Amino acid sequence: MEPITTIQDLRQLAKRRIPRAIFEYADRGSYDERTIAANRADLAAMKLRQRVMIDVSQRSLATTIVGEPVTMPLAIAPTGLTGLYHRDGEICGARAAQAAGIPFCLSTMSICSIEDVAAAVAKPFWFQLYVMRDRGFVQSLVERAIAAKCSALVLTLDLQIQGQRHRDIKNGLSIPPRLTLSNALDIATKPAWAMGVLFGKRRTFGNLAGKAPGSDSLTTLSQWIAGQFDPSLSWRDVDWIRSIWPGKLILKGVLDVEDAKIAAGTGADAIVVSNHGGRQLDGAVSSISALPGIVQAIGDRTEILFDGGVQSGQDVLKALALGARACLMGKSFLYGLGAMGQAGVAKAIDIIRGELDVSMALTGVTDVKAVDRNVLAQGGTGLSGTAASVAAAVAEGEPGARANAPASAA
Ligand code: GLV
Questions:
Q1: Potential cystine with 145: which of 98, 127, 188, 232 (Cβ 3.0-4.6 Å)?
Q2: Which residues pair with 304 in a beta bridge?
Q3: Which residues line ligand 1 (CB under 6 A)?
């Protein structure tokens, strides 16, 4: 086998090692998958600016995210069903993240529970919250996150109603996973996965004991989400969350400037510019094209994190160039996990770290905190329309536009 050198290599390996239904749950997007494609295409279209003859012998990727020191501007995104990618997948992810010095965020829809992960790792992790109709249950989740000493709460704003992912329905994805006539052949070729997950201890939603969907198919899960998640969720609820959560608050799923202004007004410690990895509103703009406008509007008021298509260190550099403080990795994390468990997650982080380090050096920057639009080629945002003009304004250094990367590159 050739050495693994890219996130795509991990993706290919994961595809071979885990059942198709589980692989495609993360790999694919909603409806016609226009937005998931746009996330990748718009990042790919951006151009970096090569610089030479600058002393780059001393380099630093260290920074902070919501005040937490991190070894690089990257965190593991909350992803549902993670423990179905590999036995105890959330614990693998948390351990790999902690060893690498970056945050790990546990999803409400995880397989390992908050308590399982807290017992397995030494340092605090983040917890992602979905708000359900049963506010008593939501409060109990928050209380469990407090008891587990989670250091940040990531409130997801963009999944009151779930976008349909055709592949999940066609694949008959079920939780817990089941051996059926139609997946028997597929599972027979993935024995390590079957031993670890299918016949393993944790196979359903660890945080939802007593609340969990009546198992079976994803159709049941979507119906369960439709019945449980609160479609009336509104900005007023953020005040309530604030009142029951004493720690750092991160609002995830902002794609629009008007929403970003309201989000900043809540006093949240950070927002995540995100379209849920192209899994919700299909036809929405790419995350990267939304980033410059949001940075321009609120970059001086709150930290801006970025999520959506990040599969390399170059992608991270491009997001930082447009004003993100750090990126979240969702799919890239699950590819590593599905490929090789904890070692695969460590590999995914290492790949992105190495690429970011070298790309930063080749753009003539030695400190990641100093990355700014100077690392982009002239007109190199690759963005069109409003996003391009806003990016250009950001590039010209309009007040407030560069708060996340105040120092200038060499
Ligand atoms: C859950 O967050 C999902 O996107 O499936």
A1: 127
A2: 271
A3: 80, 109, 159, 276, 279
Alpha-carbon span 127 to 145, nearest angstrom: 7
Say what the pTM is. Answer: 0.94
Contact 18, 81 (CB under 8 A): no
Collapse the DSSP code of 162 into the 3-class scheme (helix H, G, I; strand E, B; otherwise coil) and give the result: coil
Integer Cα distance of 320 and 74 in angstroms: 11
Cα-to-centroid distance, 288 and ligand 1 (Å): 20
Stretch (H or E) spanning 252: strand 248-254
Backbone angles phi, psi at 95, to 5 degrees: -65, -45
- 105-to-176, 189, 276, 341 alpha-carbon distances in Å: 22, 31, 14, 17
Give the position, in ligand 1's atom list, of the atom nearest the Cα of 130: 2
Q: Whose CA is nearest to atom 4 of ligand 1?
A: 279
User: Which residue's CA is minimally distant from atom 5 of ligand 1?
Assistant: 80
**Sheet (strand 270-273) strand order:** 74-76, 326-329, 303-306, 270-273, 248-254, 152-156, 126-129, 105-106
Ligand 1 atom 3 nearest Cα: 80
**14 CB burial (10 A radius; 0-12, 13-18, 19+):** buried
Strands 126-129 and 105-106: parallel
Residues in the chain: 410
Per the CB < 8 A criterion, the answer to whether 279 and 253 are in contact is: no
Calculate how far, in angstroms, residue 279's C-alpha sits from the geometric centre of ligand 1.
7
For a ligand 1 pocket test, name from 109, 128, 160, 167 the mutation site with the most ligand atoms within 8 angstroms of its C-beta: 109
Ligand 1 center–CA 287 separation, angstroms? 16
The atom of ligand 1 lying closest to the CA of 79 is 2
CA-to-CA distance for 102 and 121, rounded, in angstroms?
13
Q: Residue-wise pLDDT tens for the chain (410 aa)? A: 899 999 999 999 999 999 999 999 999 999 999 999 999 999 999 999 999 999 999 999 999 999 999 999 999 999 999 999 999 999 999 999 999 999 999 999 999 999 999 999 999 999 999 999 999 999 999 999 999 999 999 999 999 999 999 999 999 888 889 899 999 999 999 999 999 999 999 989 999 887 776 655 666 777 888 889 999 999 999 999 999 999 999 999 999 999 999 999 999 999 999 999 999 999 999 999 999 999 999 999 999 999 999 999 999 999 999 999 999 999 999 999 999 999 999 999 999 999 999 999 999 999 999 999 999 998 777 776 656 766 666 555 554 443 344 333 33
